[in-house]
Amino acid sequence: xxxxxxxxxxxxxxxxxxxxxxxxxxxxxxxxxxxxxxxxxxxxxxxxxxxxxxxxxxxxxxxxxxxxxxxxxxxxxxxxxxxxxxxxxxxxxxxxxxxxxxxxxxxxxxxxxxxxxxxxxxxxxxxxxxxxxxxxxxxxxxxxxxxxxxxxxxxxxxxxxxxxxxxxxxxxxxxxxxxxxxxxxxxxxxxxxxxxxxxxxxxxxxxxxxxxxxxxxxxxxxxxxxxxxxxxxxxxxxxxxxxxxxxxxxxxxxxxxxxxxxxxxxxxxxxxxxxxxxxxxxxxxxxxxxxxxxxxxxxxxxxxxxxxxxxxxxxxxxxxxxxx
Length: 324
Hints:
The chain is built from 10 helices and 13 strands. It is α/β, with parallel strands linked by helices. The strands form 2 sheets. A 9-stranded mixed sheet has the order 3-4-2-5-1-6-7-8-13, sandwiched between helices. The chain has a 4-stranded parallel sheet with strand order 10-9-11-12, sandwiched between helices.
């Protein structure tokens, strides 16, 4: 009933978004001189953009290509252009850019205005990856990847506020590839591919895995997370002895009291901490009991049916055709 009542507002929201996009096209969108790949989504919420950017970066580096990443820096307390460095903190640059920088060591920049950010980047790169730039309309990327969570695929969703879509699904025609992420056995592949191919020819699927090779089944742990889907993370670690999950809203900033609560429970139960890559950057070791160990788990896409290699080749072919 709630969705039905909000449906007219979703139509209004989507219509306004369509007009804004059309106005941007009339005004003229800028394609940068550096080959740009946008990793974005149509819906709000977690689809796995950061893990995919890290995986793409790692593959391009192995192929001898230079890579940089540009992000808005969502959740940071600063504005304008920043180039990340070894002493950057999440409050200055955002959690996801900091995680990307620490894991890949490639140049990472944040700037609300992506075109301005590109102008201020230092040095030339072969490929620039843009985190969540699909709705940044002044910029027109060379290649766009849209991630869509199969738990609520775009064709079973609705535009805000009736659903979680930022725009009507028709904008997917601007995507070079669409990836249904976090697929489950219940996902109807035939239906999903058929719906997606109304808009884009290249459709992929990926399952989502959490790495935990360094965890020990015999140890006690407390789990700390402030991500889009805390329950999914908890489920991924269900085989381990997690005595408590401290679960917070996405992008929540941990306080000194939070640290004291974790330390107290962990020391009382001889437990270690498990947290995510992006949450690790917000943990202040000085506020924790110095005896506590922190274990970091990361999420990773596993493309099905050789999809990742096909996606990489598609990007490189587009780059070659662009003569950049």
